[in-house]
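Weekly puzzle thread! Below is a chain. First person to post its structure in token form gets bragging rights.
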Amino acid sequence: MAAVTTLSFAQDITITTDPALAALSPEEMVAKRQAIMKEDGGILKGAGALSGAEAVTAADHLIANLSNLTVLFPEGSAVGDTGALPVIWEKNADFQAILVTAVTAATAMKTAATAGDATAYADAIKAVGATCGQCHQTFRQKS
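Winning reply:
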């Protein structure tokens, strides 16, 4: 069984990934990351209407999904029907930094939801969405 990948960053953010992801084929990685991004988009669209435990759960899903994305773009995984551009691997540190920023924003979203701070929660939702947009602008093929 693969070990859990855990990365810690200066922002006191810990990224823990699902160990099962390491065993996926490149094709399965593409499908998994596409499913995660679709799910995250849906979560973000509805997150503004949530509060309390539902808002915390939404943030938890985003934290897990965004963390898992950090390991779903290994070299050689640009196969099949992927919108991933080669720049992901050419500027991988920049790509990973955006994911860390997204996890940080999702963590702020959870903190705000837990505290019942609607303003901070809404700001954090916007921050997560902005990182998604930033990543797609640079690292995803235009449709």
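Puzzle host: Confirmed. Bonus trivia for everyone else. Residues 1-10 have pLDDT under 50 and may be disordered.
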